[in-house]
Amino acid sequence: MESNTTGKTNQVKKTYTKKGISKKSRLVQVRKKNLSTLKTNMDILNNEIEKTEQIRAQFLSNVSHEIKTPLNSILSATLLLQQKQLDGEVKELVETIHHSGQYLFTLLNDVLDYYKITSHQLNLDHINFELTNEIEEIYDIFLEKAREKNLNLQMHRGKNVPDFLIGDPTRLKQVLASLLDNAIKFTPPQGKIIIHIKQVSFKDGIHELLFSVGDTGIGISDEDKDRIWKTFSMGDMSLTRENQGTGIGLALSRQLCHLLGGKIQFESKPEKGSTFTFTVKMESGNHPRKGHNQRQDIRNILLVEDNLINQKLTQKILINQGFRVDVADNGRMAVGKFRENSYDLIFMDIQMPVMDGLEATRRIRKLESENLSEERVKIIALTANSQQQDKENCLAAGMDDYINKPFNVKKFPLILSSLQQVKS
């Protein structure tokens, strides 16, 4: 009896154990199914986010192109007008239009770079540039704005500041422009704004430069000193209601300074003024070769541009520089002209009907390969697109360099010199 009872008890235990295992197994299977469903939903969500980001990036790229294209026309036209003999009043009006266009270009870059930073897509340029040209471009813009407000704007540059650097001049100018813009906004008439530029150190080919912008403006209160670094925050709104900007200037400047290897800080006293200082680190640049005729190696240029206004204006600028210039309205026409003529340099727009600049470049490079050309033509992208992927696509297609619109004729000799140094 006892043995039978024990056997029944064991059998019951096994039955309950099997039921427990079966229940646990079902729970595990349910959890696995739920996890699989969750993973599938997460994958779908991630794909949707990625598609949304791609659409947003493409949208910004298209908007940038559509805005910069007419802006390039305005700046090119005013540049040509500035080379004419104009009377005082007309000259002043032309300069105002030109400086306003450059300022609009700076604001556009701020908005685009803010998006790039927030989406972790901002990459710095690494190009040879002349510091004086870049800084004077910004100084001239804000000198006009300072005069309109009856402010005294001065700039002092240290003797040991290098002439040529390798880095990102656009982002450097953005930071300086943001500080000058604020200084002018918040400095009452009869006030003073002083820019100082000096070299802090030079080691292993790297220059550390310090820029400061000091003003005699309204200053910043203690409670606003942390707030001004936040995006879309502008301190005491009762003071800024008439001077509101995009609200991203200082927040963006702080991040750009970090990317440029430096930092930004300030000192300020209410009703006494503020002084903002920032540092950047850049490599030593290359001087254009002295005593060398920059047109000796580059005489014949093919300009590929679908916008007729930009085409006409850029052609005039290049002709005024002493070059012979042919034009093509699209990529297919450019390939045809390349078959029939010999060019030293091609300026290639990217977004064009019939055939875009990337495909045209690939076909030109293929023709050179088939013809066993000893030396390939230099191709520079002349583009309003500013996304890093756009630049990478240009180089991958076989282009040698790229220039962001608007076209700055002052930088052209340095571009030619860089091409010739690569050639030699």
Structural account:
With 424 residues, this protein is α/β, with parallel strands linked by helices. The chain folds into two domains: 45-95 and 291-424, Response regulator (Rossmann fold, 3-Layer(aba) Sandwich); 124-284, Histidine kinase-like ATPase, C-terminal domain (Heat Shock Protein 90, 2-Layer Sandwich), CATH 3.30.565.10. Helix content is 52%, strand content 18%. It has helices at residues 2-82, 88-118, 131-148, 169-185, 237-240, 249-259, 308-320, 331-340, 357-370, 388-397, 412-423; strands at residues 127-130, 152-157, 164-167, 192-203, 206-215, 264-269, 273-284, 300-304, 324-328, 345-348, 378-383, 401-404. The termini are far apart. 29% of the residues are buried. The model is unreliable at 236-242 (pLDDT under 50).
- Output the number of helix runs: 11
Percent helix range: 40-55%
Beginning-to-end CA distance, first to last residue: 107 Å
CATH architecture of the largest domain: 3-Layer(aba) Sandwich
Which value, in Å, is the CA radius of gyration? 30 Å
Spell out the CATH superfamily of the largest domain: Response regulator
Question: How much beta, percentage-wise?
Answer: 15-25%
Give the number of DSSP strands. Answer: 12
Mind telling me the CATH class of the largest domain? Alpha Beta
Global geometry? globular
- Which runs of at least 5 residues are low in confidence (pLDDT < 50)? 236-242
Total domains: 2
How would you sum up the major sheet?
7 strands, mixed
